[in-house]
Amino acid sequence: MEHSLKIACASLAVSIVVLAIKYAAFLLTGSVALYSDALESVINVVTAVTVIVAIRIAARPADAEHPYGHHKAEYLSAIVVGVMIVVAAFAILREAYEAFLHPKLIEDAWTGLGVSVAATLLNVIWSTVLIRQGRRHRSASLVADGKHLMVDVVTTFAVLVGVVAVVLTGITVLDAGIAALVALNVLWSGWGVIRENASGLMDEAAPAEELAAIRSIIGQNAAGAIEAHALRTRHAGRATFIDFHLVVPSAMSVGESHDICDSIETELKARIAGAIITIHVEPEEEAKHKGIIVE
After folding, report:
1. What DSSP state is assigned to residue 286?
2. Rounded distance between C-alpha atoms, residue 192 and residue 80, angstroms
3. Domain residues of the chain, as ranges?
4. Does the pTM of the predicted model rise above 0.90?
5. Residue 245: CB partners within 8 Å, gap ≥ 6?
6. Which residue range or ranges hold the Cation efflux protein cytoplasmic domain (predicted)?
7. Cβ neighbours for 110, distance < 8 A, ≥ 6 positions apart
8. Residue 248 and residue 262: Cα distance in Å, rounded?
């Protein structure tokens, strides 16, 4: 968690630098397309702050009011990020409409474009770092932030191409058209972030590959038991909640069944990052003759 927090703080610093560079490009040119690009970077700064807050909340241990921990704070943060992206899209559309009504010539275009390219290169590098580190540490907030920055990269590239077209053709209304296209792309990105992270709030099960690994681990480490069934999983940030029923011989002592449970839990925690396990022990009369067969 400490590593993720450091990455999030660095992301805030990078976002502020990129915002300053992009705004400088807008001031040099007066281009509404470059202004729309800078406006999206304002959202990057707000997003970075939101991610920092979410990671700090998610790191809190379980307490009386939150016995399952605070892991879902990152999903909430990612959804907030998605909403912010959508808001930015509508703000850009408004600026595009104004520019369409009152088109302006682009000034000092090549200098402004050079400045914007520098900001884009910085975003390319940092978005890659965020996505990789977010997936490595299972941080939904970092991944969402990284994907937003990657959209920013694509957006800026489109803006640069469009501004060049305006300069070469002299058709100033293209500037507003480019800004409108940017807004639509940003809107789609925001919806994608919201949709992806809503599943985490809905207690979505572990992916099929991870679920298969969990079933295999239980079957291989439950020697002495009869079967395991009613397996359920769900993800919440870095935590993977796993619960199932373990059927043991009716004559088995509590101590023996507890030893089997310990064996399963130890192996699950060793191979499934952030595993939180609940096992309900049942006598053989409760066997369903289906589910996980003990090897």
Report:
1. G
2. 12
3. 2-201, 208-293
4. no
5. 228, 229, 230, 279, 280, 281, 282, 286
6. 207-284
7. 167
8. 14
Q: Which amino acid is it at 73?
A: A
Tokens of 285: 């009369």
Alpha-carbon distances of 292 from 62, 112, 221, rounded to whole Å:
30, 63, 11
Q: For domain 2-201, which CATH number applies: 1.20.1510.10, 2.40.110.10, 3.40.350.10, 3.40.50.1110?
A: 1.20.1510.10
Report DSSP state, residue 289: S
Query: In the numeric block, which tokens belong to residue 235?
Result: 């993800």
pLDDT in tens, 80-133: 878 877 887 887 787 778 777 877 767 777 787 788 888 888 888 888 888 888
**What CATH code would you report for 208-293?**
3.30.70.1350
87: amino acid identity, one letter: V
Distance CA 122, CA 117 (A): 9
